[in-house]
């Protein structure tokens, strides 16, 4: 079977985010960009399915500017077989990304689609679920364990109270939580090999998808800053402050 | 304008997160209807009818909705959804699972995790792990929103007298089934509802050492949380994780023990009223957000704290 992995190019998780002075967004100039960490987990899971003989081919897709090629190459170096870039310089919102991905899923007839449970820029947590809805497929979000069976997959999910296990019919969309696996690092030979793998490029128009956003960002502001407090010298002083100054314990 | 709030419940009562979603609906303004979907959930419907400000409660009591399977719940909501200007739920694991599915089936955007209502079509929401707040405006005919649990004061659980309507809609999409769950027994308050939280990080070294925090928690009536590092290392279960990708909390008092204060952790707790940090590294970033910092070895400081309470 084919496994499709959707990856997003995002600001690296180690970067300190700075809001622009004119409140139009955050500063993306000369900022390190990476594969969304949850999508790295998605790539790893797909590659493991191939190594286990469950998947024949792992296809990685990204939607965005041409620079997304870098993240596709990263995925190829980690073991994906080929890439698809759906290129647009426009802002693409989750519903539009889901529509683009649906077109790719239809084209490739993938049985398992894996993506991160959220991207760490917008923190939306929507794309996988929306893709499942549009494709009329099952979904298993926030996965921490995946077992593929005959026509089904059994998935353990991280929920508010702990863990739950569900069985979904294939084809299915899985979104990854942090503990699904620990992604590998790309080796130098694999990075070299990845340079020769194909990346096909389409535009949203090629796929018949209108990506015009319906949500407009009016402004972006910094959160209300917290003042650093004081350093106490002892546990006695701490307890005293909590009782008599902050009055949060009695 | 008519607003639908999809309420999470445990069959007998509605969850606190649902009361927060109802409060957000009140901030938008309009008639508020609450959907209770489940199997054997009539009692939850009755408690929802008592919530202040609710006009009508819709109860969909059917086996198809017993375990919050996203495919079935979304199909139900979409069936009734076009009657509303807004559809809301809390930003919980369950709401996050089915709401985007609802939005896509209605061919509208979802605005995730709103932290403020500016007007009926304009909302604030945190992005980049809470390091920026975006004000966004939707042009969609139906606004699908999830609501941050710490952002609104919950609606009063009493004082309302809504009418109750039973919905005879069975939507079993047959795409998924529920097998089992591993749910930790709660001996302490739930993280998202607790007024005091004490959390441990990698500095705790192992799961057994969390007993130190438990003893303090019992004296304070506190819930226990953890950093991702502590969960990943297997010290404690995933439901205790606080942060960008765990639970978002804002208690009156948050005590971070052996936690460095990575932005992803801060994203989940920096709206707490009072923050205490106990860390042996005086340069740990957690001290930059702490009201009271104690530079100390936790294995000495926490037992001392325990003894003084
Ligand atoms: C995509 C993504 C999502 C993430 N989501 C989350 C999330 O939701 N929540 C989260 O918490 N993290 C999250 N993280 C991880 C985050 O980046 C940090 O790695 C994590 O928070 C670190 O946990 P920690 O502070 O316990 O461990 P460390 O950073 O290792 O800090 C341990 C601290 O303990 C102190 N210490 C050690 N021994 C003692 C002692 N004896 N006495 C006193 N102090 C001691 C040390 O000085 C140190 O400051 C995420 C990361 C990524 C990439």
Written description of the protein model:
The complex is a heterodimer of chains A (250) and B (309). Chain A is of the alpha/beta class. Chain A contains six helices and 13 strands. Chain A is globular and about 65 Å long. The N and C termini of chain A lie far apart (62 Å). The relative contact order of chain A is 0.18. The model of chain A has no long low-confidence stretch (mean pLDDT 97). In chain B, the strands form three sheets. Chain B has a seven-stranded parallel β-sheet with strand order 5-9-4-1-2-3-10, sandwiched between helices. In chain B, strands 13-12-14-15-16 form a five-stranded parallel β-sheet. In chain B, strands 6-7-8 form a three-stranded antiparallel β-sheet. The longest helix of chain B has 13 residues, at 16-28. Classes of the chains: A alpha/beta (250), B alpha/beta (309). The interface between A and B is large, with 79 and 89 residues. Bound molecules: flavin-adenine dinucleotide. Flavin-adenine dinucleotide (FAD) sits between chains B (201-203, 227-230, 241-246, 258-260, 262, 264-265, 268, 279-281, 284, 297-299) and A (13, 37, 120).
Broad shape of chain A: globular
User: Quick one: overall form of chain B?
Assistant: elongated
Which oligomerization state do the chains in this entry correspond to? heterodimer
List the strand order in the largest sheet of chain A: 9-8-7-10-6-1-4-5-11
What's the CATH topology label of chain A? Answer: Rossmann fold
Question: Structural class of the helix and strand makeup of chain A?
Answer: alpha/beta
SSE string of chain A, helix = H, strand = E?
EEEHEHEHEHEEEEHEEEH
Strand content of chain B: 25-35%
* CA-atom Rg of chain B in angstroms: 21 Å
Overall residue-averaged pLDDT value of chain B: 97
Compute the number of strand runs of chain A.
13
How would you sum up the major sheet of chain A? 9 strands, mixed
- Radius of gyration over C-alpha positions of chain A, nearest whole angstrom: 21 Å
Provide mean pLDDT of chain A, rounded. 97
Attached small molecules: flavin-adenine dinucleotide
List unreliable stretches of 5+ residues of chain A: none
- End-to-end Cα distance of chain A: 62 Å
What helical percentage do the residues of chain B reach?
Answer: 25-40%
Tell me the series of helices and strands of chain B, N- to C-terminal. EHEHEHEHEEEEEEEEHEHEHEEH
- Structure annotation, total helices of chain B: 8
């Amino acid at each position: 079977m084919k496994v499709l992995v959707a990856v997003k190019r995002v600001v690296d998780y180690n970067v300190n985010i700075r809001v622009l002075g004119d409140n139009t967004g955050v500063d993306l100039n000369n900022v390190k960009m990476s594969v969304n960490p949850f999508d790295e987990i998605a790539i790893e899971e797909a590659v493991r399915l191939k190594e286990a003989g469950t998947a024949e081919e792992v296809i990685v897709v990204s939607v965005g500017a041409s620079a997304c090629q870098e993240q596709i190459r990263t995925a190829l170096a980690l073991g994906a077989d080929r890439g698809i870039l759906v290129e647009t310089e426009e802002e693409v919102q989750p519903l539009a990304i889901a529509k683009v991905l649906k077109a790719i899923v239809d084209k490739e007839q993938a049985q398992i689609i894996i993506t991160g449970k959220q991207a760490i820029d917008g923190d939306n947590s929507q794309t996988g679920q929306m893709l499942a809805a549009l494709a009329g497929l099952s979904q298993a979000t926030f996965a921490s364990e995946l077992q593929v069976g005959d026509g089904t997959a059994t998935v353990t999910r991280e929920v508010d109270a702990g863990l739950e296990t569900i069985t979904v019919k294939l084809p299915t969309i899985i979104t990854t939580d942090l503990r699904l696996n620990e992604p590998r690092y790309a080796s130098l030979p694999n990075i070299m090999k990845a340079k020769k793998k194909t990346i096909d490029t389409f535009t949203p128009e090629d796929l018949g998808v209108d990506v015009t956003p319906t949500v407009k960002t009016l402004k972006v502001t910094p959160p209300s800053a917290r003042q650093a407090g004081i350093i106490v010298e002892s546990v006695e002083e701490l307890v005293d402050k909590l009782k008599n100054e902050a009055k949060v314990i009695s | 304008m008519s607003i639908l709030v999809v309420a999470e419940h445990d069959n007998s009562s509605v969850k606190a997160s649902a009361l927060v979603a109802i409060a957000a609906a009140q901030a938008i303004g309009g008639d508020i209807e609450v959907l209770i979907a489940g199997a054997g959930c009539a009692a939850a419907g009755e408690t929802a009818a008592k919530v202040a400000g609710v006009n009508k409660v819709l109860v969909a009591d059917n086996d198809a909705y017993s375990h919050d399977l996203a495919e079935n719940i979304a199909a139900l909501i979409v069936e009734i959804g076009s009657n509303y200007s807004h559809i809301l739920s809390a930003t919980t694991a369950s709401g996050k699972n089915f709401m985007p599915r609802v939005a896509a089936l209605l061919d509208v955007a979802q605005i995730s995790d709103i932290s403020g209502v500016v007007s009926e079509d304009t909302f604030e929401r945190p992005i980049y792990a809470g390091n920026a707040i975006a004000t966004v405006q939707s042009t969609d005919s139906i606004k699908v929103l999830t609501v941050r649990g710490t952002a609104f004061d919950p609606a009063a659980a009493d004082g309302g007298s809504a009418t109750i309507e039973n919905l005879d809609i069975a939507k079993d999409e047959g795409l998924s089934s529920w097998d089992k769950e591993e749910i930790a027994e709660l001996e302490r308050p739930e993280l998202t509802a607790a007024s005091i939280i004490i959390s441990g990080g990698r500095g705790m070294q192992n799961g057994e050492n969390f007993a130190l925090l438990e003893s303090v928690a019992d004296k304070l009536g506190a819930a226990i949380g953890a950093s991702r590092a502590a969960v990943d290392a297997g010290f404690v279960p995933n439901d205790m994780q606080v942060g960008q990708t765990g639970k978002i909390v804002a208690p009156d008092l948050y005590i971070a023990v052996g936690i460095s204060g990575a932005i992803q952790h801060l994203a989940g707790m920096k709206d707490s009223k009072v923050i205490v940090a106990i860390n042996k590294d005086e340069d740990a970033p957690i001290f930059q957000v702490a009201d009271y910092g104690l530079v100390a070895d936790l294995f000495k400081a926490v037992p001392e704290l325990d003894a003084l309470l």
